[in-house]
């Protein structure tokens, strides 16, 4: 793909939509970079498709019902508690 695949006018238009002020040298630089990016996409179009489906397996364990900790046991290692709840620092 040639460097003029993206015109400076298109770069200025996109910059205007994004509310970005660009100098003339920046417009030229972005036009070249956009052209490079589009060339990469064209390269990706050349990658052959794979005709097989991926082997998927369920990696999740089944749910198990278990007794939970009682309040006293859950709060045992908490640095601070208040009224049966964990207490953390005030957030301002």
What would you note in describing this structure?
- The protein is mainly α.
- The chain has a domain at 3-45: Histone, subunit A, CATH 1.10.20.60.
- The chain contains 3 helices and 2 strands, in the order αααββ.
- A two-stranded antiparallel ribbon has the order 1-2.
- It is elongated, with a radius of gyration of 29 Å.
- Keywords: ATP-binding, Ligase, Nucleotide-binding, Protein biosynthesis, Transferase.
List the helices and strands and how they pair.
Elements: H1 8-17, H2 24-45, H3 71-75, E1 81-82, E2 85-86
Antiparallel strand pairs: 1-2
Helix pairs in contact: 1-2
Organism: Halopiger xanaduensis (strain DSM 18323 / JCM 14033 / SH-6)
EC number: 6.3.5.-
Pfam family, one: GatC
Compact description:
This protein is mainly α.
Q: What is the succession of H and E elements?
A: HHHEE
Largest sheet, if any?
2 strands, antiparallel
- Report the average pLDDT across residues: 88
Work out the helicity level: 40-55%
Strand order in the sheet with the most strands = 1-2
So, the CATH homologous superfamily of the domain at 3-45?
Glu-tRNAGln amidotransferase C subunit, N-terminal domain
Total beta strands: 2
State the distance separating the first and last CA atoms.
55 Å
Low-confidence stretches: none
Task: State the helix count.
Answer: 3
Catalytic activity: L-aspartyl-tRNA(Asn) + L-glutamine + ATP + H2O = L-asparaginyl-tRNA(Asn) + L-glutamate + ADP + phosphate + 2 H(+); L-glutamyl-tRNA(Gln) + L-glutamine + ATP + H2O = L-glutaminyl-tRNA(Gln) + L-glutamate + ADP + phosphate + H(+)
Keywords: ATP-binding, Ligase, Nucleotide-binding, Protein biosynthesis, Transferase
Subunit structure: Heterotrimer of A, B and C subunits.
EC number: 6.3.5.-
């Amino acid at each position: 793909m040639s460097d003029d695949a993206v015109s400076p006018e298109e770069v200025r238009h996109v910059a205007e939509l994004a509310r970005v002020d660009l100098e003339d040298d920046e417009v030229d630089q972005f036009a070249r970079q956009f052209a490079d990016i589009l060339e990469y996409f064209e390269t990706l179009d050349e990658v052959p498709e794979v005709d097989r489906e991926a082997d998927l397996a369920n990696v999740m364990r089944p749910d198990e019902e278990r007794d939970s900790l009682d309040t006293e046991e859950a709060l045992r290692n908490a640095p601070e508690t208040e009224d049966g709840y964990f207490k953390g620092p005030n957030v301002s």
